[in-house]
Each structure stands twice: as structure tokens, then as C-alpha cells.
Amino acid sequence: MATKTKLHPRNQHREGYDFMRLVAHTPELEAFTISNPVGRTTIDFQDPSAVRMLNRALLKTYYNVDFWDIPANYLCPPIPGRVDYIHYLADLLSGSNNQEIPRGRHVKALDIGTGASLVYPLVGQSEYGWHFTGVDIDSAAIKSAQQICEFNKLNIALRRQNIPENIFRGVIGPKDAFHITLCNPPFHASMEQANKGTQRKWRNLGKGHSKELNFGGQNAELWCPGGEMKFIAGMVEQSMEFADQCLWFSSLVSKKDNLQPLYKILGKAKVADFKVVEMAQGQKISRFIAWTYIKKSQRSMYMNGTSK
Questions:
Q1: pTM of the entire structure?
Q2: How many domains, the chain?
Q3: pLDDT confidence tier of residue 60, bands split at 50, 70 and 90
Q4: 194 — alpha (psi -120 to 50), left (phi > 0) or beta?
């Protein structure tokens, strides 16, 4: 496949999918491979089983995850884009670490909405050795994540958020300290909106009408009251309570129009600094917003564990 030069320089998937290597590590993938019109090997990305098997092969080949699976109808995340978020977060943390990428288990990361796939902790731990804590409101998602950890003998902490309206409350304890939080928030504001978005995707793929939801995905993964904007606004509001317990808070922002309102919300929260980092996967542009309450002069001390 053509080189995906828009992915992060450290992203192992910049040159596309090496199906020969993937099949060598996961022979079951071969049954799902097809040839595209120009004769290159690929899979049918509209087939959930094929996408799940591709993810399993990618995680095994590149991230040393021997076992990976998710329950039916849960989101099957695109690995290259998820990995990009982790790499750009590492760059962000390097700014508080004498421009060196921080590696090792002393770096604490909190994944809000870790999901059944546990994808961010899996790739982040493999790439940088960080210690991850994954949080989710869905008990089945937590159970799936626990099974992945147990099968692969991974030390990833998992916490259930029992109150859906809460994000950081109830999961960040008084003695906790994190260097980074990350989140892929629910995009849609209602189930109806999620369904419309799904139908639009299927029409764009020339597949007509479908009852399939976003090629997998539970309600909490796809929508919440007020959608992405309200979710991130709530995240900013709650982050104020834990201002001295986390160096950088962050969240993906799917809709560019949400940035301006978020700037105002961050201003009212009196953050010390915030950044928007753009990422690109092929033609698709994505981004995340990150904010901190820690003054620049104190960030290296926080990074090195000498300041909470």
C-alpha cells in the first residue's frame, strides 16, 4: 500500500498494512483477505468480522498482544488512528520533560471510556511502557478489558464509573496523580442522531439502508445527552476539582466547530495553558485538545514526580 505519510512519524502503520507479515503472525486473517481493483491485498472493511481479525493481527504483530477480542456489537477501533493519539500525547509530555519522550511505568495515564477493546492502554503500554488506568461505565466493557489483561498478563488498572454523569469524580482518588488523561468521547447527542450518522456512512459506501450502528458500538460509545460538546465541557468542569492531580487533561474533538466554545470554557476554568493538536489519517483530519492547570515552570518537577 502507499505510504501514509500523514500519520505520526513514530506510527508503525505509516506505510499501510503489511498483510504478508500480519498473516504470518495471525494465519486466521488470511481467510478474510481479498484483492482490491489494482490487485493489492486488503480486507472488506464493511465486514465486522474481518475488521476484528485485522485488529487482532495488528495488536499481535506490532504490540505483543497475544489475545484480543471484543463482544459482538462493541466498537472495533481503527488501530492506526488510535496509535496516533498516543504518539502525539507522548510529544505533549516531552514538552514537560526536557523535550525527551517519557517512557516507563512511572508515567501514569488515565483512559476515560477505555471500552471493551482496551486499545489505548494496549498500544500505549507497548510503545512507551506507561502505566494505564482504564475507566468505563459499561460493566460488560470492563469485563472484556479484564479478560484481555488476564490472558496477556498485563498490569493495567481498571475502574468502573458507577455514575454516568461523572467523568473524573469517583475514579480519581485523593492519593492519585496522573501525567495525562485521554478520552474518545461519545460524538452524537441522541440515539436518533447516531442512527442518522450511521445511515449517512452506509449511503456513502453505496450500501443503502442498514440497521447496523456505526459498524458496532453500544449506546454509551456512540451518544450521550448534549453530544461531544457537552461531554467535554463536563470534563473541563470536573477537571478543575483535580487540577493538582494531573499534569495534562486531554480529549479528542471530532467536530472542529466545537473548538471555539471550548476555548471560552477553558478560559472560564482559568487553565494555565491549553493546546490543540491536529492529526491526519489519509484524507481525514482529527484533533485533540489538551489543558493543564500546572504552571510551565512547575511541569518538569511534576513530570519527574517531585511535585504533585
A1: 0.88
A2: 1
A3: very high
A4: alpha
